[in-house]
């Protein structure tokens, strides 16, 4: 089993890559059989599509990086238990296509396998995300 410190380092490194817009760096942290889910209905906004597998997650992440830029990022809590972690964080977000901005508090449930991120389920203000995006 992976050590707590290694899981915490993996997560912080992956999120740092995402926040600086480094798609290759971000994807280097993901397992081949990974999934990403921003909890919300895809009918509300296309960002809520739920890709499975590295190629689909990469495509989703590329779109997210091109669309949403984070600033004033603050880690509120990172809890690790075995191969599961919960990251609670907040950030200001700008949606580049619309120019709209908002402040969001986010909770991510993360599973790690073979030293890589296997799944992320992200919870935030989905109505707020939809407002930024349309």
UniProtKB/TrEMBL annotation:
Residues 12-119 form the SnoaL-like domain. It comes from the Bacteria. It comes from Bosea rubneri. Pfam families: SnoaL_2 (PF12680). This is Nuclear transport factor 2 family protein.
């Amino acid at each position: 089993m992976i050590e707590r410190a290694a899981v915490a380092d993996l997560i912080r490194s992956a999120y740092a890559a995402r926040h600086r817009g480094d798609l290759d760096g971000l994807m280097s942290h993901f397992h081949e059989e990974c999934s990403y889910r921003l909890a919300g209905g895809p009918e509300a906004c296309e960002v809520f599509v739920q890709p499975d597998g590295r190629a689909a997650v990469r495509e989703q992440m590329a779109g997210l990086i091109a669309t949403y830029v984070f600033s004033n990022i603050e880690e509120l809590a990172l809890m690790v238990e075995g191969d599961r972690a919960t990251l609670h964080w907040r950030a200001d977000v700008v949606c580049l296509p619309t120019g709209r901005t908002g402040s969001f508090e986010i909770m991510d449930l993360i599973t790690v396998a073979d030293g890589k991120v296997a799944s992320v389920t992200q919870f935030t203000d989905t109505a707020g995300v939809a407002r930024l995006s349309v």
